[in-house]
Amino acid sequence: MAAYVLRRLLLMIPTLLGIMLLNFVIVQAAPGGPIDQVLARFEGLSTQASTRLESGGGDTAGGGGESRGALGVPAEFIERLETQFGFDEPAHERFLGMLADYATFDLGESFFRGEKVTTLMLERLPVSISLGLWTTLLVYLVSIPLGIRKALRHGTRFDVWTSGLVIVGYAIPGFLFAILLIVLFAGGSYWEVFPLRGLTSPDFADLSPWGKVKDYFWHITLPVVASAIGSFATLTMLTKNSFLDEIHKQYVLTARAKGAGDRRVLYGHVFRNAMLIIIAGLPSALVAIFFTGSLLIEVIFSLNGLGLLGFEAVMQRDYPVIFGTLYLYTLIGLILKLISDLTYVWVDPRIDFETRES
């Protein structure tokens, strides 16, 4: 197993490099780079200045020197921007330099925020962890017992009705369900039961410890429910089908023939085998929920998480933030995938990835 883990760790290096290279090429080829973003803002200010001058709404110092500077972009200014952003170097040198910095987890500094990328991510991380952790916990606590129950009562009215409910929930987009929750329970048109935005109240620091806990869960309830609604169906049906497949296998019939009760058969034999496929999907589910699946929810509920940070970076062409978050997300995803394989072996020692590879 040690040799298998070592090979997987070594394989992460070319995988990570390939993903970073592909995205570097795509982002560099996309129009509207950081310099274009700065010039667009500069031209916007120029247009406002010209409008004020034409309307006589303002005077400029130096006999109109400011207006002339506002209406044109000096070449020296563009050269300084290229030097500041590192675009005075060839693309391959910038890529290799970026990889060298990332090897020491130096993710650079944001072009437009004036802060290190790690600082920005650490500031937003608690929000994404809060949302992702409680969403994952809620989904698994509901979907796995429900899926087992549906497998045991396959074809009954309970199975049909619950399948309809989870499929309807899956069909409703998370952001649309979030708006519905706001309308119903956040003072939109009906009841003002939950707050509209943020994770804490303005007076959070002055609350008692128990008051802080209540305030936190009061704020997180609607975002978590909105994030989880679309995940119930997938995990519930996956659990049901996995258990159904195991229940009809020969070893289950043998155990029942020997007089084992349904509960012993279910949790002593079926559960371990049926949970393997669910464990396999946990890493991708965690990455999706924690880092990429909450963008619209964060926007709707005004939550400054990692999803919103990544979206803003793409819109602004803030390359250090784009590539820094991509690097960490990819690395975490690869590590979680390895952990998933190791969990396979822990759950069922009969699985031997090393033998299969050889």
Note down, in words, how this protein is organized.
There is one protein chain. The protein is mainly alpha-helical and 358 residues long. The protein has a domain at 117-357: MetI-like (MetI-like fold). It has helices at 2-29, 34-54, 65-71, 75-85, 91-103, 117-152, 157-171, 174-185, 209-228, 232-247, 250-257, 262-274, 276-280, 282-292, 295-300, 306-316, 319-347, 353-357. Helix 16 (306-316) runs antiparallel to helix 17 (319-347). It is globular, with a radius of gyration of 27 Å. Residues 46-50 and 56-71 have low confidence and may be disordered. It is a multi-pass membrane protein. It is found in: Cell inner membrane; Cell membrane. The chain crosses the membrane at residues 127-148, 160-186, 216-239, 274-301, 321-347. Its main location: membrane.
Topology:
Layout: H1 2-29, H2 34-54, H3 65-71, H4 75-85, H5 91-103, H6 117-152, H7 157-171, H8 174-185, H9 209-228, H10 232-247, H11 250-257, H12 262-274, H13 276-280, H14 282-292, H15 295-300, H16 306-316, H17 319-347, H18 353-357
Short note summarizing the structure:
This protein is mainly α and 358 residues long. It has helices at 2-29, 34-54, 65-71, 75-85, 91-103, 117-152, 157-171, 174-185, 209-228, 232-247, 250-257, 262-274, 276-280, 282-292, 295-300, 306-316, 319-347, 353-357.
